[in-house]
Structure formats: structure tokens, C-alpha cells
């Protein structure tokens, strides 16, 4: 069975995506029906929806929207990696609530769109450690120059399962093999990190 663990769906009538206006090639809707047709042709049987960095006020609405889609006949969606804000004081209470929803499989905070000191903050790191023991994952979405911050976070939360998105986003076009090669070898030594082979032709 092939499971797509990184499905992005976009519904601009239902949710706000502040970043889309700056990426014209992606500034359109991406529906489940469109995806399902292509996915089935490729042998994909199930999918996890990956949060799409919606407006912070729409985070819970995004999860509800995707969960609703999962209940429709023929849906490939079986769970979601949802957006979160570990840097905020309300994260602990929010985490307790979300952990009770079996549809949620993990979390992501896109870190290359915020200053590095967000992931270096004491509250952020404390809240990431709270995920330990929940069976839920945390996806790392970082650029090569942020790999040291990612490694530090992984080391501070050894009981949390991390997923490195897009192989750490190497600069393929710029042929910048180094220091990315050394960095990904270093993070791969951590037993609580796995990687997604995606984005390597971007």
C-alpha cells in the first residue's frame, strides 16, 4: 500500500492563505477530487493532509474542513498533520484538546517563514517536548541554513518523533551540495528523526 504523507489541499473560498499571493503558480484551488484522480493512477490508496500555512485564525477551520472531506465516500484522506503555534502560551491547552482527536496524526510549524529565534525560544522548546508520549509527530520545515536550529530542537526533545520535510530543502538549482550534505548526514544520526523524500527537484 502506498500512503501519501504530504497532501496539500487548497480551498480559497473556505480558508485564507496569506502566502499564496506571492506564489502565482500555486495561487489556485487544489481539490480532493482532482488529487484523487491523479493519486489513484499512481497507485496511492491513502493520504495524510499536510497543513498549508493558513491564516492563524483559520488553523482549526482547516483541520475541520479536511476531516469533513475524509468522511465523504471515496475519500483518500485518513488523517492530518495540523498547523500549530508552539511559541504561544495557549499551546499546552490546545495540545490536550487536539490529542483527543484520532484524525490528527502530527503537527507542523513552518519555520523558514519566521525568525530563527522563534524555534530557539524557551516556550517553543518546552511545548515541543510536551508532544512526547502522545504518538504524534512534529514535521520540521526548514531551509539548509536553519539545519543547526533543527538539530538543536531534535536534541532537546529526544522522545518526540520528528519528520524532516523535503530533505531539508537543498538548493538543487544552485548546486549547493555543501554544507547541506554534511548537515543532513548529521541530523540523520538522530534516532528520533525520519525524512520525507520530496521536493528534491524543486
Describe the model:
The chain folds into 2 domains: 83 residues, no CATH class; 94 residues. The chain is an alpha/beta fold. The two termini are 26 Å apart. Strands 1-2-3-4-5-6-7 form a 7-stranded parallel beta sheet, with helices on one face. The protein is 30% helix and 19% strand.
Give the overall silhouette. globular
What is the chain-wise order of helices and strands?
A: EHEHEHEHHEHEHE
Intertermini distance: 26 Å
Q: What's the number of helices?
A: 7
Q: How many domains make up the 3D coordinates? A: 2
Keywords:
single chain; 202 residues; alpha/beta; 7-stranded parallel β-sheet; 7 helices; 7 strands; 30% helix; 19% strand
Quick structural overview:
With 202 residues, this protein is of the alpha/beta class.
Question: Strands, helices and their partners?
Answer:
Blueprint: E1 2-7, H1 32-41, E2 44-50, H2 59-70, E3 77-83, H3 91-98, E4 104-110, H4 117-120, H5 122-129, E5 137-141, H6 147-156, E6 161-164, H7 180-187, E7 193-195
Parallel strand pairs: 1-2, 2-3, 3-4, 4-5, 5-6, 6-7
Amino acid at each position: 500500500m502506498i500512503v501519501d504523507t504530504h497532501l496539500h489541499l487548497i480551498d480559497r473560498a473556505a480558508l485564507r492563505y496569506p502566502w499564496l499571493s506571492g506564489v502565482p503558480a500555486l495561487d489556485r484551488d487544489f481539490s480532493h477530487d482532482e488529487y484523487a484522480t491523479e493519486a489513484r493512477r499512481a497507485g496511492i490508496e491513502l493520504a495524510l493532509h499536510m497543513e498549508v500555512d493558513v491564516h492563524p485564525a483559520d488553523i482549526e477551520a482547516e483541520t475541520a474542513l479536511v476531516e469533513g472531506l475524509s468522511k465523504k465516500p471515496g475519500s483518500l484522506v485518513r488523517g492530518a498533520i495540523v498547523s500549530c503555534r508552539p511559541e504561544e502560551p495557549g499551546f499546552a491547552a490546545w495540545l490536550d484538546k487536539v490529542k483527543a482527536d484520532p484524525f490528527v496524526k502530527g503537527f507542523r510549524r513552518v519555520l523558514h517563514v519566521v525568525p530563527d529565534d522563534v524555534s530557539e525560544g524557551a516556550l517553543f522548546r518546552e511545548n515541543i517536548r510536551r508532544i512526547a508520549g502522545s504518538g504524534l509527530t512534529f514535521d520540521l520545515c526548514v531551509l539548509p541554513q536553519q539545519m543547526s536550529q533543527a538539530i538543536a530542537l531534535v536534541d532537546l526533545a529526544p522522545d518526540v518523533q520528528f519528520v524532516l520535510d523535503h530533505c531539508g530543502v537543498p538548493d538543487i538549482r544552485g548546486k549547493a551540495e555543501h554544507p547541506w550534505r554534511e548537515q543532513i548526514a548529521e541530523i540523520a544520526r538522530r534516532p528520533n528523526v525520519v525524512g520525507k523524500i520530496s521536493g528534491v527537484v524543486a
